[in-house]
Amino acid sequence: MVIAVIGSGYVGLVSGTCFADFGHEVICVDKAKDKIEKLRNGQIPIYEPGLEELVDSNVKAGRLSFTTELTDAVRKADVIFIAVGTPSRRGDGHADLSYVYAAAEEIAASLDGFTVIVTKSTVPVGTGDEVERIIREINPNADFEVVSNPEFLREGAAISDFKRPDRIVVGVSGDRAKSVMTEVYRPLYLNQSPLVFVSRRTSELIKYAGNAFLAMKITFINELADLSEAVGADVQDVARGIGLDNRIGSKFLNAGPGYGGSCFPKDTLALVKTAQDHASPVRLIETTCSINDQRKRSMSKKVISAVGGDVRGKKIAVLGLTFKPNTDDMRDSPALSIIQALQDKGAEISAYDPEGMKAAVELVDNVTFGNSAYDVAKDAHALVIVTEWNAFRALDFSRLKEDMAVPVLVDLRNIYGKDEVAKHGFSYMCVGRPD
Ligand code: UGA
């Protein structure tokens, strides 16, 4: 089985590498020459634990290669995965499908023999139909089927998510494509991951429904965190108390500064747009989007109140910039909104992140970056944990207290407890737990 993966971004690179690890021959294609050159030299363009080693071993085994030549890859392939980006379209929030359709056009001319073309990118309902139409128009005699196979991996846990998925969703109608997809995923369903065959449109909707539901679940617990603060309850105990009910489930009930990243914000918005276009609004998701947008900025109020009501001229040290740990991804990170809101109120910001600072430099102004938590905490009036990197889970509070102007910790990820911090002389604020 020869697999071509078009687009060597997060999803394309991880999927292609894991397919190679299953034993398939995989050709990863990308237009960006420098990216392909780096990959050929064993350099990975993103930070993802375990990926570099897996790329290396599969390249050495001769199963994984990288190229900018789409035509050759398509000609050889039995299966082609389209894994290009579908960012928010500027102005209206719809998913921008121009990269997907451009890939379809390029693929069309070079198809050779029966080929299964799979959309792995997150695409709105009906995109598979359009991909099929484009290819048919350009190459009327081509023998192909278009399948939807959304990806559910998370950044930071991408390889284990890909290799041990809760399920694999395949939107397919023809038997030939169904048997090819069964072959592609054989190692996984042998490992008991269910293969769920549905219609193509259903599969496309499942991806958005899944992300929207998770975004809604996080937003639900975030609102309950605010309510817990107001009534003197503990949101972590509320989450545990409801999460042990199997119908609810305990995952994605960690209250925090709001969800960010390259997926939830853009996918919830795209679902809202699709639903509006079909005069079938998804009001829970509309509300989820607006609550989350407001929440990210409003976290600055916690910091302001923790330093006595005014941040003007005070140094605030921010720990964690990426939208979650174990990634260098800064897209829609809550840290960006919080920093901006604090700067608007006159705060001076210093910040540290183990992997995100390279990207952050391009996104924020007037921030002093440091090399460690201790470095940025010097003379600060508050330390604010925005992202729960492991490096911040065992801070030396005695050392921090000596260096800070005032020992205040605002823990937006609830990784500490009031008592353990108070014994070092720190005042403590968190999310949804009694202060
Ligand atoms: C998300 C989904 O979890 C994946 O299943 C999906 O494949 C991916 O989007 C995608 O569509 O490509 P990801 O964005 O990598 O994955 O990260 P998550 O772990 O889902 O976290 C998203 C955001 O929610 C982060 O900002 C995180 O801090 C926040 N979050 C998550 C919470 O605030 N509380 C939680 O309990 C869980």
UniProtKB/TrEMBL annotation:
<feature type="binding site">
    <location>
        <position position="122"/>
    </location>
    <ligand>
        <name>NAD(+)</name>
    </ligand>
</feature>
<dbReference type="GO" id="GO:0006065">
    <property type="term" value="P:UDP-glucuronate biosynthetic process"/>
</dbReference>
<dbReference type="InterPro" id="IPR014027">
    <property type="entry name" value="UDP-Glc/GDP-Man_DH_C"/>
</dbReference>
<dbReference type="GO" id="GO:0051287">
    <property type="term" value="F:NAD binding"/>
</dbReference>
<feature type="binding site">
    <location>
        <position position="30"/>
    </location>
    <ligand>
        <name>NAD(+)</name>
    </ligand>
</feature>
<dbReference type="InterPro" id="IPR036291">
    <property type="entry name" value="NAD(P)-bd_dom_sf"/>
</dbReference>
<feature type="binding site">
    <location>
        <position position="331"/>
    </location>
    <ligand>
        <name>NAD(+)</name>
    </ligand>
</feature>
<protein>
    <recommendedName>
        <fullName>UDP-glucose 6-dehydrogenase</fullName>
        <ecNumber>1.1.1.22</ecNumber>
    </recommendedName>
</protein>
<comment type="pathway">
    <text>Nucleotide-sugar biosynthesis; UDP-alpha-D-glucuronate biosynthesis; UDP-alpha-D-glucuronate from UDP-alpha-D-glucose: step 1/1.</text>
</comment>
<feature type="binding site">
    <location>
        <position position="155"/>
    </location>
    <ligand>
        <name>NAD(+)</name>
    </ligand>
</feature>
<feature type="binding site">
    <location>
        <position position="266"/>
    </location>
    <ligand>
        <name>NAD(+)</name>
    </ligand>
</feature>
<feature type="binding site">
    <location>
        <position position="260"/>
    </location>
    <ligand>
        <name>substrate</name>
    </ligand>
</feature>
<feature type="domain" description="UDP-glucose/GDP-mannose dehydrogenase C-terminal">
    <location>
        <begin position="317"/>
        <end position="418"/>
    </location>
</feature>
<feature type="binding site">
    <location>
        <position position="35"/>
    </location>
    <ligand>
        <name>NAD(+)</name>
    </ligand>
</feature>
<feature type="binding site">
    <location>
        <begin position="152"/>
        <end position="155"/>
    </location>
    <ligand>
        <name>substrate</name>
    </ligand>
</feature>
<feature type="binding site">
    <location>
        <position position="86"/>
    </location>
    <ligand>
        <name>NAD(+)</name>
    </ligand>
</feature>
<dbReference type="GO" id="GO:0003979">
    <property type="term" value="F:UDP-glucose 6-dehydrogenase activity"/>
</dbReference>
<feature type="active site" description="Nucleophile">
    <location>
        <position position="263"/>
    </location>
</feature>
<dbReference type="InterPro" id="IPR028357">
    <property type="entry name" value="UDPglc_DH_bac"/>
</dbReference>
<keyword id="KW-0560">Oxidoreductase</keyword>
<dbReference type="Pfam" id="PF03720">
    <property type="entry name" value="UDPG_MGDP_dh_C"/>
</dbReference>
<dbReference type="Pfam" id="PF03721">
    <property type="entry name" value="UDPG_MGDP_dh_N"/>
</dbReference>
<dbReference type="InterPro" id="IPR008927">
    <property type="entry name" value="6-PGluconate_DH-like_C_sf"/>
</dbReference>
<comment type="similarity">
    <text>Belongs to the UDP-glucose/GDP-mannose dehydrogenase family.</text>
</comment>
<keyword id="KW-0520">NAD</keyword>
<dbReference type="InterPro" id="IPR017476">
    <property type="entry name" value="UDP-Glc/GDP-Man"/>
</dbReference>
<dbReference type="GO" id="GO:0000271">
    <property type="term" value="P:polysaccharide biosynthetic process"/>
</dbReference>
<feature type="binding site">
    <location>
        <position position="324"/>
    </location>
    <ligand>
        <name>substrate</name>
    </ligand>
</feature>
<dbReference type="InterPro" id="IPR001732">
    <property type="entry name" value="UDP-Glc/GDP-Man_DH_N"/>
</dbReference>
<feature type="binding site">
    <location>
        <position position="207"/>
    </location>
    <ligand>
        <name>substrate</name>
    </ligand>
</feature>
<feature type="binding site">
    <location>
        <begin position="252"/>
        <end position="256"/>
    </location>
    <ligand>
        <name>substrate</name>
    </ligand>
</feature>
<dbReference type="InterPro" id="IPR014026">
    <property type="entry name" value="UDP-Glc/GDP-Man_DH_dimer"/>
</dbReference>
<dbReference type="Pfam" id="PF00984">
    <property type="entry name" value="UDPG_MGDP_dh"/>
</dbReference>
<dbReference type="InterPro" id="IPR036220">
    <property type="entry name" value="UDP-Glc/GDP-Man_DH_C_sf"/>
</dbReference>
